[in-house]
Amino acid sequence: MSSNEERPVMESLKSLDEIERLATKQLSKRAWSFNYAAAGDHISKTLDAEVYRSILLRPRVFVDVKQCDMSTTILGHEVGVPIFVSPMAMASLAHPAGEAGISAACGIFNAMHIISNNASMAPEKIVEGAAPGQVFGFQLYVQNDRRESEIVLARINTMPEIKCIVLTLDEPVPGKHELGMGLQKYEESQGNREQPRQSSTANTDVSVAIPSVSGPAPDLTWEETLPWLTQHTTLPIILKGIQTYEDAQIASKYAPRVRGIILSNHGGRVLDTSPPAIHTLLEIRKYCADVLEILQVMVDGNIQRGTDVVKALCLGARAVGIGRPALWGLGAGGVAGVERALQILADETRTCMQLLGVRRVADLGLQHVNTRIVEQQIYNR
Ligand SMILES: Cc1cc2nc3c(=O)[nH]c(=O)nc-3n(C[C@H](O)[C@H](O)[C@H](O)COP(=O)(O)O)c2cc1C
């Protein structure tokens, strides 16, 4: 089906949950398992969503909210919404439109798209149809043979659409997830990284566009890896997978070369019972709030509603990432499905801002949320 034929069906979907349910019906078992998977007993994945439900909103009244502007900036670049698509491997498993399809949908909202190191399409192809001013990041998994990564960086450095390098740090060794038989075989053959390459059942033509030869490196360090990266790119660096305030504080010492951090537990896919991004954000506020001034702090993990987006922004996040919802969008309706997912989230975000009495993203603040339940969970032992 072309994107235009899919549009009316997509319009009938009212929530990210409905998109996921449709995608679940339509996707192959293998593609579904790859998207759905989480580590261990899915405790982090579940808690990522629950934590947003425990935060209450504090709406203000008698405010003219006829106009509401959701635009903001990320690293100084204008974006239309404070929502971005987090890097995800192998989007073509969900739909042939793949990562280029995600970009096409992001272009409509001027939303940032972070391209995965393990994308199924070449980065050049993903940015090919970019809208004017559309913002991209490139996520890097540093390889054992650093020259492999240096060649990738040299390539990325020539692409003006890519505005930052997002270095993922939360998976120095593979986490354990039980994905179902078909996929397990891939994961084993690929060192369990998010890069299934061949299937005996379906989608045999799907593979990572930048194959890993020497394997992802487990020996990255603050002292060695950041100077090495700085030698090979002048693009701003964002560290993804920060899960404690201590590491956020260390990251801030590397500013201005490090410009931002993404608080993330990788969608609960790596270390089960690792904390939701919101816990880390609250801890940063309590123990080292200056980090929020020094670095742009972003979050991701099981965002389901515009109210979730707004709550994270109120707590100081610059923008909020979605992972699986983009893939479910692809699975439900290709580009039109991703567009629908972003539309639902953007509409819900705007409505929530208006109902809080807020007209601009920058005006969202601590006064609009009550986080006591979550803080009790974190601090009261
Ligand atoms: C299928 C899938 C593949 C992923 N691949 C990558 C990847 O290649 N690099 C990376 O840094 N994170 C990867 N992630 C993690 C996402 O960037 C993001 O942190 C996570 O999906 C956010 O949680 P959510 O899916 O609940 O929104 C992947 C996540 C999923 C679901």
Outline the secondary-structure elements.
Blueprint: H1 3-11, H2 16-26, H3 29-36, H4 43-54, E1 56-57, E2 72-74, E3 77-79, E4 83-85, H5 98-109, E5 113-115, H6 123-127, E6 136-140, H7 146-157, E7 162-168, H8 181-189, H9 222-232, E8 237-242, H10 245-253, E9 258-263, H11 277-287, H12 291-294, E10 296-300, H13 306-314, E11 320-322, H14 324-356, E12 369-370, H15 372-379
Helix pairs in contact: 1-14, 2-14, 5-14, 10-11, 13-14
Bound molecules: flavin mononucleotide.
Residues 34-35, 86-89, 116-118, 139, 168, 194, 240, 264, 266-267, 269, 300-303, 322-324, 327 line the site of flavin mononucleotide (FMN).
Explain what the structure shows.
This protein has 381 residues and is of the alpha/beta class. The chain has one domain: TIM Barrel (Alpha-Beta Barrel). The protein contains 15 helices and 12 strands. The strands form 3 sheets. The protein has an 8-stranded parallel sheet with strand order 4-11-10-9-8-7-6-5. Helix 2 packs antiparallel against helix 14. The N and C termini lie far apart (54 Å). It binds flavin mononucleotide. Flavin mononucleotide binds next to helix 3 and helix 14.
Task: Summarize the entry for a quick read.
This protein has helices at residues 3-11, 16-26, 29-36, 43-54, 98-109, 123-127, 146-157, 181-189, 222-232, 245-253, 277-287, 291-294, 306-314, 324-356, 372-379; strands at residues 56-57, 72-74, 77-79, 83-85, 113-115, 136-140, 162-168, 237-242, 258-263, 296-300, 320-322, 369-370.
